Amino acid sequence: MCLSIPSQVVEIHLNEQAVTVDTMGVKRKVSSHLMTEPLSLGDFVLIHIGFVMNKIDTEDAMASLALYQEIVQKLEAEERES
Asked: Distance (Å, rounded) from C-alpha 48 to C-alpha 54?
């Protein structure tokens, strides 16, 4: 199973067909070669092996990110207890 964390487009590199995304505070450049629709700053996307696969709705992205943050907090709490 593969899980993709929503990432927000923070920079567009038109000459390279790439974008820089922010994934829960981590920024990285990924390819947008596979996208058929244009990307804009602030868009939320899903990435697989370094390629933007599709855009997702902001509301869905925020709900997913909140769930991931909850998981991280629970794992950190368990780690502190052990």
From this structure: 10
